[in-house]
Amino acid sequence: xxxxxxxxxxxxxxxxxxxxxxxxxxxxxxxxxxxxxxxxxxxxxxxxxxxxxxxxxxxxxxxxxxxxxxxxxxxxxxxxxxxxxxxxxxxxxxxxxxxxxxxxxxxxxxxxxxxxxxxxxxxxxxxxxxxxxxxxxxxxxxxxxxxxxxxxxxxxxxxxxxxxxxxxxxxxxxxxxxx
Length: 179
Description:
Layout: H1 2-25, E1 34-35, H2 39-45, E2 82-87, E3 98-105, E4 112-122, E5 126-128, H3 130-134, E6 143-150, E7 154-164, E8 169-178
Parallel strand pairs: 1-6
Antiparallel strand pairs: 2-3, 3-6, 4-5, 4-7, 7-8
């Protein structure tokens, strides 16, 4: 009985991985709109994420080849670079497609490392959706601008991360309320 359960579980994992590989392999069309998060993803990942613990520890970026992950935590916000969301105005309800413009503000003389940019969808599970944006827009040390992002109706929590050359982390959370 146990072997059948293992075979069944393995087949589900393999078929899910195959579907993800096929989705990731398809090149994104230039211009127009694109799905930043699909409706089925938003439902399965969950639009309401767990509250972050207040006693979390700093994560050393050297463990991840100097690149943040969805679990990276900034150690001192006062001395870290910042991420400013210039578009859209996230305090207001949004209608898709959405244009997203981010400005990276360096701290001191340490430049931002664009290759460290990450976007994570936070819900019951946290998913790295960086490639969906970087396939559509170039990330520079100053920031990025992407047009035509589609999100389903509801509340969507995104975590934006980028590091500078000293390994200091900019971390910004954005909640998109889509009508």
